[in-house]
Amino acid sequence: MRGSPLLRALLAFLAILALGWPLRQLTNAGDAPREQPKAAVVAAKEIGLRLAFTLVPKSVKVLHLGKEVWSESAPTAEMERALKLAYPDAGIELQFQIEWPADAPLAAMRAVLTDPAGDAHEHSIWGQGSTEEVVAFP
Questions:
Q1: Consecutive 10-residue runs of the chain (138 residues): their mean pLDDT?
Q2: Residue 23: per-residue pLDDT
Q3: Is residue 55 part of a domain?
């Protein structure tokens, strides 16, 4: 056996201890407050939303960011409305809540959103009874 195992262990411990302080400084977030990224303010723009149904539902609600932006208690087979919403470059998400008649077969709704640039984006929702779905429009 060459050297002292106790001395080797002590030297290894000191080497790890010496590297511990710089490593802690690199990984510690520190007490300085971090600067929060600023959210981009998006102005409200007018967008067109057209809904068409294969079967007229009992009621329809459209929500954006949890707030109701359009509600119809007696909808027709086709409806259209201009909504004033914040429309960022990434697009928006709209939540649709549709109440179909209780004994109705599978039905569908087509939603066509016309963005501020004039481009049309189309999505379909299928369901029976109470249907709730979030749709992303790019």
A1: 81 89 79 71 89 96 95 95 91 95 94 94 96 94
A2: 83
A3: yes
* DSSP string for residues in 70-137: EEESS--SEEEEEEEEE--TT-EEEEEEEE--TT--SEEEEEEEE-TTS-EEEEEEEESSEEEEEEEE
d(C-alpha 3, C-alpha 31), whole Å = 45
For residue 101, the domain's CATH number is 2.60.60.40
Answer whether residue 10 is part of any domain.
no
Q: How far is Cα 52 from Cα 122, in angstroms, rounded to an integer? A: 11
Q: Considering the chain, what percentage of its residues have pLDDT values greater than 70?
A: 95
Which residues partner with 136 through β-bridges?
93
Question: For the chain, what is the domain count?
Answer: 1
- Flag whether the pTM goes above 0.90: no
Angstrom distance (rounded) from CA 10 to CA 70: 73
